[in-house]
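Extended Data, record ATP synthase epsilon chain, chloroplastic
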Amino acid sequence: MTLQVCIMTPDRIFWNDQADEIILPTNTGQMGVLTNHAPLITALDIGVTLIRSNSNWNPVALMGGFALVKQNQVTILVNEAESAQTIGVDEAEIAFQEAKTKLEQSQGEKQRVEATFVFKRARARYQVVKQLGV
């Protein structure tokens, strides 16, 4: 038995396929989902989700949202999703380093919140390309 995983963004269905396992970046840490998981709804943080299908792990950068797990179906609603194939390695690394520097230099609450958002997004994209070894 497998999971049916569907990742939806506001403008398209990003992923709709079966998987053996999925690891979600929730607001309280990573959460793994296997078949026959208890039903739940969880908020998703900006981060990397890992989808295992046929012994292959597929990393996907998710930009925050929600996940519903019910009856071996995982429905993920996110603001944006990106795979390693659509992210330039050099671009992701430069954006990550710039975001890290900006976060370290941020002053004041508003600037820190904005810099943290940009950093999390850049880190997720960078982790996706690094995990796939592109």
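Summary. The CA atoms of residues 48 and 61 lie 5 Å apart.
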